[in-house]
């Protein structure tokens, strides 16, 4: 019999991941502080619970996809949290993006209650998550990974076991640091093409076929050019993850140059457009500078 899962945090990313689990035949019990988010999953076949503890008690394992380590801690270890419901030997799969110190601290809280942790942040964005094609970066015990691999593969096209808990956070923060650097660079490239009087659709294709191409250009430049910016990932989340990259730089004594600069650019973006603006709107800083 396959494992069943509680799924807590059904936002832009978690909603799509939970839907993939349900589509692939897993029994899923959902909880979100926003009842409408839970209802969308009920329409697909999930059952609901009135708290993370109740969902976890019913399922025996729990998955989270939440906006910050602070929220993950409250959902895991706060009143009515997962650790009140998970049985000894149950698994907590954390799919939110955390820094290494944060996931190690949270995993220790779980371990003290006999619950094992598999960290499983994902990379590729909401659009790939909706198509079940996102990539999982996994940290944890290899046997635990094998146990939950069917569920991970129901949500993600590829998964990489990186090492023990904490190792997936390191690579996830690295991949996001690269993505934000690429996004700022792609925005500058598009603005140079625009100011140079080039056809932007043709410039997009030329860059895609060039040595300057990147995954971010291929996926996000489209959203910038069509004016929707709809990446499903906010400035606040970008700043959280850049904060983890800066902390890693300090911890590993690496005088990073680009990450602090890009973090400052996103601070300016947040000031101009708000923390809940899509991260792709960072390009508007340049656009607005030219247009005013
Ligand atoms: P989101 O804000 O869209 O969703 C968060 C969900 O958590 C919301 O539905 C919210 O109601 C719920 N929530 C918040 N506090 C809660 C609580 N106390 N109890 C229960 N539910 C609560 O965020 P998202 O974009 O889905 O991102 C979630 C995590 O995934 C973040 O750590 C983010 O960095 C990571 N991530 C996101 C993407 C993406 O493309 N959006 C990609 C990779 C990783």
Automatic annotation (TrEMBL):
Boundaries of every 6-phosphogluconate dehydrogenase NADP-binding domain copy: 5-163
Gene Ontology MF annotations: NAD binding; NADP binding; oxidoreductase activity
Active site: 172
InterPro entries: 6-PGluconate_DH-like_C_sf (IPR008927), 6PGD_dom2 (IPR013328), 6PGDH_NADP-bd (IPR006115), HIBADH-like_NADP-bd (IPR029154), HIBADH-related (IPR015815), NAD(P)-bd_dom_sf (IPR036291)
Keywords assigned by UniProt, alphabetized: NAD, Oxidoreductase
Signal peptide: none
Ranges of residues in domain 3-hydroxyisobutyrate dehydrogenase-like NAD-binding: 166-286
One Pfam family per UniProt: NAD_binding_11
Keyword NAD: yes
Protein name: NAD(P)-dependent oxidoreductase
Species for this entry: Mesorhizobium ciceri
